[in-house]
């Protein structure tokens, strides 16, 4: 599959899952996965899901502005760099964010998230 | 050296070089290096240096707000995720940006940039 199409498909799946079934994100991470969310570091699928579920908002909607991707090396990994906005229920203004994912192939022909870094973009 | 310290040192060196001697960035890239700058893709140290030298501004000053890093896998690589602002000479307002680097170790004990993705963060 074309890498750009793959990155786009992953991004759409990731944020749709985040916005409708946050616990479902667990299957996208593995034991060695790392998340840095606004500077807070977490490791491993279980701890990462717990962190994402504990974020101080119930409902949210991600809107993606840009998606860039590049192959990350001989292991078949892919870097995906996203920017967009995040609307929280009840808030008047949406928050801008940037996020990068490092996807690694699984034996089943899919991808999992090895590295995940999220930052809000303050005005 | 502590990974966070390595990332911080790299970021300081990269932007100081960008702001004072843009052509000097070429030795941070190699033949397989990739840059995506505002969606435009370039590959190889020479083409990347040419792309950066051709950007439509002479003087600029990067101001870094956040630096996050994570190891990228068994090959010893490091992902560095930066946000900050970019002041162009003669412009009244600074531009906000996010950038990610994937650094790979060299045999001499240094790092080179394998992947580089840059995006402005529009308000």
Automatic annotation (TrEMBL), chain A:
* InterPro entries referenced in this protein's UniProt entry, alphabetically: NTF2 (IPR045875), NTF2-like_dom_sf (IPR032710), NTF2_dom (IPR002075), Nuclear_transport_factor_2_euk (IPR018222)
Which UniProt keywords are present, listed alphabetically? Cytoplasm, Nucleus, Protein transport, Transport
Question: Sorted alphabetically, which Gene3D superfamilies does this protein's record hold?
Answer: 3.10.450.50
* Gene Ontology cellular component annotations, sorted alphabetically: cytoplasm; nuclear envelope
Q: Name one GO biological process term.
A: mRNA transport
| Annotated localization | Cytoplasm; Nucleus
List, for all copies, the residue spans of the domain called NTF2.
Answer: 6-120
Principal subcellular localization: cytoplasm
Cross-referenced Pfam families, in alphabetical order?
A: NTF2
Q: Does the keyword Oxidoreductase apply?
A: no
Q: What does this protein do?
A: Has a role in nuclear-cytoplasmic transport of proteins and mRNAs.
Name the record gives this protein: Nuclear transport factor 2
Organism of this sequence: Elaeis guineensis var. tenera (Oil palm)
TrEMBL record, chain B:
GO-annotated biological processes: mRNA transport; protein import into nucleus
Superkingdom field: Eukaryota
Q: Name one Pfam family in it.
A: NTF2
The record places domain NTF2 at 6-120
Alphabetized UniProt keyword annotations: Cytoplasm, Nucleus, Protein transport, Transport
Localisation per UniProt entry: Cytoplasm; Nucleus
One GO term of the cellular component aspect?
nuclear envelope
Q: According to its UniProt entry, what is the function of this protein? A: Has a role in nuclear-cytoplasmic transport of proteins and mRNAs.
Protein name as it appears in the record: Nuclear transport factor 2B isoform X1
